[in-house]
Specification:
five-stranded mixed β-sheet; alpha+beta; three-stranded antiparallel β-sheet
């Protein structure tokens, strides 16, 4: 007797049972029934699996992933976020001083000062209204054209202001003359430029005075320029303690004025004959004279003191002595007088900053 496999036996029993039940019904389509039983039996009909492992068995066509599936999986896999690498800090550039040379500005610029004199008169030249006298200053040549142009602009501006004052005086007196036929006082405008230099910096003192009768108006201005860089030099830009230097220079100016006054006052010399000895034996002793020196007398109350200077300017000046540095100190006193004198500044070197040292100690 042939032994039925397990799945076939189950299929046969189910087929028999379902046949009995279906036959009990009155209207049964046997063709469709047979087809359904056949399909049901096929559903339980399986093939025995080989003894080899799944890994060793080739995959069926349905189990092989398509290329599209592989590409999709590769695209959806998140990639690792790259870590930013910081840029290396650049090394500082080294300065090559092998070709460095010290700059000597002496005689690298020229300053010209010219005197002038002009006047304004009535149409018939019988009446003089005013005069305009003084000098003009111009930097005619300089290695640094920026410095040349800058200081000329300042100087020309001051001169134009003085010239404008002169034109105003002329207009005022001319109007008086045309109204009354006479003038009470003629006018005068005086403009003065004075410069100081040590070869590196150029300082200019500018003054103009307007006189009409007993009335006098004065304006004073001052400017210093670094002829190497073209910079406008102020006291605060060259010293570390401007107040201390101002106090020192006011005292130095007062002392210099006093010393000059003592030098100007010549001592009085008188000669007193020495008496001849009474007893002369063989020769006559020569007559000698004693020189008496009278100390010069000056009234120090007439000289300005440090506290008398309201405004002070410090201009770099050249020195004839090697190793000695000087400035020209200009002081405007309370009484309106302008004083100036040279003062040595080596004792005050610690009051200057590095830039000030390069400008004043050359």
């Amino acid at each position: 007797m042939k032994k039925l496999e397990g799945n076939k036996l189950v299929a046969l029993l189910l087929s028999a049972g379902m046949t009995t039940a279906l036959l009990a019904a009155c209207s049964v389509n046997t063709d469709q029934l047979g087809q359904g039983i056949s399909e049901l039996g096929g559903a339980f009909n399986t093939t025995a699996a080989p003894e080899t492992t799944i890994a060793e068995t080739p995959a069926s066509q349905s189990e092989v992933p398509s290329e599209t599936t592989e590409e999709t999986t590769a695209e959806t896999t998140p990639s690792a976020t790259p870590t930013a690498t910081p840029s290396p800090t650049p090394l500082p550039q080294r300065v090559d001083f092998s070709d460095y040379t010290e700059i000597d500005l002496t005689d690298s610029f020229e300053v010209t000062v010219e005197e002038f004199d002009e006047s304004a008169h009535s149409d018939d030249d019988t009446v003089e209204f005013a005069t305009f006298t003084g000098n003009r200053l111009v930097v005619t040549d300089a290695d640094n054209e920026t410095a040349r142009d800058a200081i000329n602009l300042v100087v020309d501006g001051f001169y134009a202001e003085a010239e404008g004052a002169y034109q105003n005086v002329v207009a005022q007196i001319k109007s008086e003359y045309l109204t009354t036929g006479v003038i009470e006082n003629a006018g005068n405008v005086y403009v003065h430029f004075e410069y100081f230099t040590n070869g590196r910096a150029l300082s200019v003192l500018m003054i103009y005075v307007v006189n009409v009768g007993e009335k006098a108006d004065r304006k004073v201005d001052y400017a210093t320029f670094d002829m190497l860089t073209g910079h406008y030099v102020t006291l605060n830009s060259v010293v570390s303690d401007a107040d201390a230097l101002e106090r020192a220079m006011k005292t130095g100016l007062a002392d210099a004025i006093k010393a000059k006054a003592l030098e100007t006052a010549q001592p009085t010399v008188t000669a007193t004959p020495t008496p001849t000895p009474a007893a002369v034996t063989t020769t006559t002793a020569p007559t000698t004279a004693e020189t008496t020196v009278a100390e010069p007398t000056i009234n120090e109350d007439d000289l300005p003191k440090a506290s008398d200077f309201e405004i002070i300017y410090i201009a770099p000046s050249a020195s004839d002595v090697e190793g000695v540095h000087k400035v020209t100190v200009i002081g405007l006193a309370k009484d309106g007088i302008i004083y100036e004198a040279e003062v040595e500044i080596d004792a005050y070197a610690d009051l200057f900053n590095r830039y000030g040292t390069s400008v004043f100690f050359v």
